[in-house]
Amino acid sequence: MTQATEAPPRSRRAPRKSSRGGKAFKIILLALLVLALIGGGAVWWMYSHLNGNIDSVDLDKAIGDNRPEKVVAGAQNVLVLGSDSRSGANGDLDHGDVGGTARSDTAMLMHIPEGRSKVTAVSIPRDTLVTRPECRKKDGGTLPSKKRVMFNSIYTVAGPACVVNTVEKMSGVRIDHFVEIDFAGFKGLVDALGGVTVTTDKPIHDTKGGFTLEPGTHKLNGTDSLKFVRTRYGYGDGSDLGRIGLQQQFMLAMLTEIKKQDALGSPARLYKLADAGTKSLTTDSDLASLTALADFAKSMKGVDASTMETIMLPVAYDKVDPNRVVVAEPQATDLWTAVREDKKIPASAKKSPATGG
């Protein structure tokens, strides 16, 4: 009979404060540490499986050399994309059918300043009319530049590298990394967490999707979380601008939920989180491995999620098509300048003429 191993005595030293930033990536690192106790063969199989989950895109090859110079070497800018593809496992989610075509349903530029003390998330409304630069298409051909295209359509016609290129051109900010997650991956990660708790002070009655949520605190499963971040017609003025606030709120709630998890308490649960968190990912080639993700997570140890600032790119309603928005000036230029130079964003740069109610 195997005897139970006595737990080692606790250290008398004062406990260190745990990092609350980059938790999603740190889960992967913790998973590897725990799995290392199981056995070499199992570790190698699981590492290979998780590593194989991650798809990647070589940004330098796809975009070329015509990119903004990096101004502050120690700062990091990460473009986070949410894809609304209905292909594969995404087909039955959110009652959508767009023939398997994917668009960038959500786009946030995460600015991580030098010193990694705070994160600023800038949401780019999907209905923003922008100038799409000349891009390389998936088939190797060239897509000509075009003015007044809807931001979320760029992913559809040219893929994530062209979205990165567009954001760089409109902002002058060098994008260091990008991370993309799709519908099924988002749902899987929330379910692996056991749900995410959100609090709302306004009712949500989405007449199109049928999603209803009364004011109060609710723990949402993966399916309802997806509806929460995508609800549009039952919140604010029914535009994309209204739901950006919900998306930013959910992101913070999800980080809080990850922080609360007893990650080391259950190796099986830990592996489940790591599996869900990686198989839904497409990243730039520099981040496309567990080692790279873990190194990036360690560099984020000083970030405190409770101080994360969420901003919407300042936009105004388009004079030609009121259902679309355009970048508002001079607010947007002031915002991008502050991000590019790693400086505090002025209050005037956070005010958007179009608010979405």
Describe it for me?
Helix 6 packs antiparallel against helix 9. The chain has eleven helices and 17 strands. The radius of gyration is 21 Å and the shape is globular. 35% of the residues lie in helices and 20% in strands. Residues 1-21, 35-40 and 86-100 have low confidence and may be disordered. A hairpin with a 7-residue loop joins strand 3 (104-112) and strand 4. It has helices spanning 23-35, 40-53, 59-63, 153-158, 160-171, 183-193, 222-230, 240-260, 267-279, 290-299, 331-340; strands spanning 55-57, 76-83, 104-112, 120-123, 128-132, 135-136, 142-143, 146-150, 177-182, 196-200, 204-205, 212-213, 216-220, 281-284, 309-312, 315-317, 325-327. It starts with 22 loop residues before the first helix and ends in a 17-residue tail after the last helix. A seven-stranded mixed sheet has the order 1-14-9-2-3-4-15, sandwiched between helices. It has a four-stranded mixed sheet with strand order 8-5-17-16, with helices on one face. A two-stranded antiparallel ribbon has the order 6-7. By secondary structure, the chain is an alpha/beta fold.
Average of the residue pLDDT scores:
79
Question: Which percent range fits the helix content?
Answer: 25-40%
Quaternary: single chain
Ends apart, CA distance between termini: 66 Å
Q: Sheet bearing the most strands, described?
A: 7 strands, mixed
Secondary-structure class: alpha/beta
Based on Cα principal axes, name the global outline.
globular
Work out the strand percent: 15-25%
H and E order: HHEHEEEEEEEHHEHEEEEHHHEHEEEH
Low-confidence stretches: 1-21, 35-40, 86-100
List how many beta strands DSSP finds.
17
